[in-house]
Amino acid sequence: MNRRVVISGCSGGGKSTLLDELARRGYRVVAEPGRRIVASELQADGTALPWHDLHAFLHRAVDLALVDLSEADAPNQWVFFDRGLIDAVSGLEHLTGKPVASTSDLARRYHHCVFMAPPWPEIYVQDAERRHDIDSAIAEYERLMHMYFTLGYELRVLPKISVHERADHVLRMLDPVQAERAVHGIRWCEPD
User: Fold this and answer.
1) Would you tell me how many other CB atoms lie within 10 Å of the CB of residue 153?
2) Which of 68, 126, 147, 192 would be a feasible disulfide site paired with 2, CB 3.0-4.6 Å?
3) Has domain 4-184 been given CATH number 3.40.50.300?
4) What is the DSSP letter of 26?
5) pLDDT value at position 110?
């Protein structure tokens, strides 16, 4: 059963805040590779930064996402990823215009349900690690939606609600309890 769940979507759309809430509730979370790389490169005066050497940055993001996947085997518990391998590959393919990985390499690496944080201009903030504007973030969101859909993942756009309600929503969507489906008539994502 695949219990590795990706929370992807628009930069600045509340993904990291949601992951923080899930961690607070005791779930294992994996921080966004890109943010970790940027923090590391800024501290070391490195150049693998999206605004300096995007190619090197994206290659490092792919490598780090692969390490994250190999270290996140927890068959009996949900593990939530703030972005992941497919996000990094999507960026690299967009940059180079060439396929980086085959569909079979990317499909089913994660739970079949992927949660997408939609563009949310009201909370979007640029900072030292997020220097791109909202229009660039929206374009990336659209590319990610297309790539995850093309790979066969079921996309679930997160509602624009409080972080507590968002976490409840994600956990409800992953709940495999048959009785709840019948009572509420909700189409739920089951573990693989």
Assistant:
1) 22
2) 192
3) yes
4) T
5) 92
Higher pLDDT, 125 or 68: 68
Give the phi and the psi of residue 73 in degrees, each rounded to 5.
-85, 100
Query: Sign of the CA dihedral 157, 158, 161, 165?
Result: positive
Q: How far apart are CA 38 and CA 127, in angstroms?
A: 12
Q: What percentage of the chain reaches a pLDDT higher than 70?
A: 82
DSSP 105-173: HHTTSS-SEEEEEPP-TTT----SS--S-HHHHHHHHHHHHHHHHHTTPEEEEPPSS-HHHHHHHHHHH
More confident: 145 or 124 = 145
pLDDT band at 181 (very low <50, low <70, confident <90, very high): very low
SS3 content of the chain, % helix, strand, coil (to 5): 45, 10, 40
Query: Token pair of 159, please?
Result: 């509602």
**Residue with token string 């089951």:** 190
φ and ψ at residue 6, rounded to 5 degrees = -95, 135
Mapped onto helix, strand or coil, the DSSP state of residue 46 is coil
CA 82 – CA 73 distance, rounded (Å) = 16
Tokens of 67: 């390490």
Beta-carbon contacts of residue 117 (< 8 Å; ≥ 6 apart):
7, 8, 9, 10, 13, 14, 15, 18, 158
